[in-house]
Amino acid sequence: MKEYKKSKLNSVKRGANRATYDIEKINTILDAGFIGYVSYNFQGKAIAIPMAYGRKGNKIILHGSNANRMLTSLLEAKEMSMTVMHLDALVLARSGFHHSVNYRSATLFGTCKKIEDKEEKNDALFCFMEHMMKGRWNGIREMNNEEFERTLVVEMTIETASAKIRDVGVADEPEDYNLDVWAGLIPIKQIATYPIPDKGKPESMEIPQHVLDYYEQNK
């Protein structure tokens, strides 16, 4: 089992019993999502923004316009942090104090750089698209030169990371279990519903197999 080395930066302090540094488990959390919360500093102000991402090995791919202030700020700092979180259930206890949620979260720390080589940039954009939906890249129009040049691609190398997972039930005070208060879990799940074609030609076209595959796997 390969793990990220614990340090002051990535060590989980509160709820350390729920922490994991296992690389495979962290990658599973990353691969189950598509949106990460990226933190950065802009003109002395701390800002966090949700961003779509792709993952390949220990690399995270972000992209945006060349003028994107978040990406340019990250490149200036040469390092970044990102968190991905999945809400799995509301935990309804017998007291307000013990209400909680079940979740899977991973926080990444690493260095970042701009991808400038044309072939590497194309591979990074392929990674991003395939992370969103496997098979989508080959089903769409190829980017033209203007679009390609206007797109800024940033690659984060994960240097260290940690995850926290809560996947248990209610934990009330022993004396509260006989109270006439309902307690339990409300599971939360993000699902895909049946694809809706855009107006025009897609309305008369067959839905691509890769789109149907995604729907079947996530409905």
Automatic annotation (TrEMBL):
Signal peptide: none annotated. InterPro entries: Pyridox_Oxase-rel, Split_barrel_FMN-bd. This is Pyridoxamine 5'-phosphate oxidase family protein. It comes from Polaribacter aestuariivivens.
